[in-house]
Amino acid sequence: MAFGQKSDNSLLWKISGNGLKEPSYLFGTIHITCDASLSDKVKTALDKTQQLCLELDMDDPNMQVEMMNSMMMQNGVTMKSLAKPEDFKAVDAFLTANVGFSAEMLNTVKPFMVSAMLYPKMLNCEMQSVEAELIKIAKTQNEEVIGLETVSEQLAVFDAIPYQEQMNELVITAKDNMQRDKTEFTEMMAIYKSENVEAMVTFTEKSPNAMTSKYGDVLLKNRNQNWISRMTTIAKNKPTFFGVGAAHLGGKEGVIALLRKAGFTVEAVY
Fold first, then answer.
1. Cα separations in angstroms, 127 against 8, 139, 245, 270
2. Which residues of 40-70 are buried (b: 16+ CB within 10 A; e: fewer)?
3. Domain limits of the chain?
4. Angle at CA of residue 145, ends 223 and 141, nearest 5°
């Protein structure tokens, strides 16, 4: 079976066949990194396509408002109600020192969203974004930027992962002052640089962070499934450069395997 084959080491894949007049491309991104510079093969693929499709439509003016609306926990749950008093105190001191907001101020926000505010602090460098680089090029080419899912669809993932689990992870982050997370980010960036998409999948499955390892279905697999019909429609409409998190690409239920299953030819670009 073609889709059982091992993925080659590449972050860039060409999608053809299955009624496409011109190929589209699939690229694995990393949302935060120390070096977001794009390789020549990626720039060539951007030249050959006519629009950029990311996980979210990141140039949508309503995106910030939607983000704000989806940040709060449902049913009156608070971070305080999810943590022991001494743990809440530790989180409070940690957040005040690192993001300038107390846990009291962020009490109703989903703990995952609070953790995300800390990402820049987890890198030993100035944070860069691969998505931002892709958007820059799309803009210079006067191309449309579209999204595979809405903000509310993406953030609904963090209602599906129990708030308690999210809070437990935030407590660990606060108590060890991000040491675990910093180590994990360093490893992840190294795997990303190696372009080994299978290793990215294994890495998420073995993550010490339960949010990543325990809820792979919610974070990755279910979303991959949802994307395939959308990607098919988009690619048939015009040649598209798809940029999604690299952990979505590999594995039996990754985007590469699912596109092949849907009848496309998906080949690594070197």
1. 28, 21, 16, 27
2. eebeebbeebebbbbbbbbeeeeeeebeeeb
3. 2-70+127-158+178-268
4. 145
Of the chain, the percentage scoring pLDDT greater than 70 comes to: 97
Report whether 130 contacts 29 (CB < 8 A): yes
Is residue 253 scored above 70 in pLDDT? yes
Contact 147, 53 (CB under 8 A): yes
pTM of the model: 0.94
Work out the average pLDDT over 102-109: 97
* CA angle, residues 127, 131, 134, in degrees to nearest 5: 120
Q: Please tell me the least confidently modeled range out of 6-15, 92-101, 112-121, 246-255.
A: 6-15
**How far is 204 from 213, CA to CA, in rounded Å?**
6
Report residue 158: phi and psi, to 5°: -90, 5
Looking at per-residue pLDDT, the higher value among 7 and 28 belongs to 28
- Write the CA distances from 107 to 80, 128, 157, 186, integer angstroms: 7, 28, 19, 29
pLDDT tier at 7, thresholds 50, 70, 90: low
Residues sharing a CB contact under 8 Å with residue 211, sequence separation 6 or more, in sequence order? 112, 161, 165, 166, 169, 219
C-beta neighbour count of 152 within 10 angstroms? 11
How far CA 11 is from CA of 59, 172, 177, in Å, comes to: 23, 32, 32
The residue written with tokens 């308690």 in the block is: 164
Closest CA to 207 of 227, 223, 191, 224: 191
Joined tokens for residue 188: 């992840």
